[in-house]
Amino acid sequence: MITITGSKGYIAVNLKNFFVSKGMEAKCVDVRGEIPDDIFADTDTVIHTAGIVHNKKAKKELYYKVNVAMTKKLAETAKNNGVKHFVFFSSMSVFGMEEGEINENTALVPLNDYGKSKLEAEKILLAMQSDDFKITILRPPIVYGKNCPGNYALLSKLVKLSPVFPLVDNRHSMIYIENLCACVYKIVSENITGIIHPQNSDYVNTSNMCALIAEYNGKRLFLMRFLGEIVSHIKSSYAKKAFGSLYYAKNIAFSNDIFDFETSIRLTEKNNEN
Questions:
Q1: Percent of the chain with pLDDT over 90
Q2: Are residues 23 and 89 in the same domain?
């Protein structure tokens, strides 16, 4: 049995559906409130996706209560229930970088409570690892797909409203939700442990992605170099996320694509129509 924390979370629900489609027994559980001692009874693998993400309204204490203390409690409960493999969804934010290449020499210097709490949880889990209790930590980049929250959805809306868009020469690590599920499936099936940096096989260029979104929606998008130069000087966090470069070096990246990039955009836009 595979038990996934986060009964309504975007990643949790997609993971459950993917594992079930592969003929494996999987369920999602709600871990808000008191955690029953037998929540992981008959479970071989726990995939812990639940947590507090970037939330301007969340206080510092909440990040540590949910992302650290709850993770520790769940791992202890899993270990006591004989769970063999604990897979933890951490974040790219543990590096504290907004731009540039992340490689094997990049320091872990998170800038906010989200990244700091995820890194603290990682350290706790790695200290708990034993021969009978394996730990895998995933640090996914931007995740996109059907009904995805976050930056992709905002860019898709912008493309549908505007006939022009910045032309930028950037690169991003991103991962399509089905490709992420395939990565986790491989990790669970092959008992892969350690720290994993999942991404699509190919880097993503924002202008190219938005041109594909426009094409699927029957629009012609004019990519403007001067707009790209303008946005390159905007210092906001959103502008950096959308138009800057932030990516994993190929030698630390983990990919298991079942859909290429162009197909993933087509499927995302098609499904978002429904």
A1: 74
A2: yes
DSSP labels, 109-137: ---SHHHHHHHHHHHHHHHH-BTTBEEEE
Q: What domain range is 158 assigned to? A: 149-172+203-251+259-272
**Same-domain status, 59 and 159:** no
* 101, part of any domain: yes
A 10 A CB-CB count for 191 gives 11
Q: 68 vs 19, 98, 129, CA distance in Å? A: 27, 23, 16
Q: Structure pTM? A: 0.93
Q: Average pLDDT for residues 5-24, to the nearest whole number? A: 93
Q: Which amino acid is at 264?
A: S
190 domain-assigned: no
pLDDT tens across 151-177, in order? 888 889 989 999 999 999 999 999 999
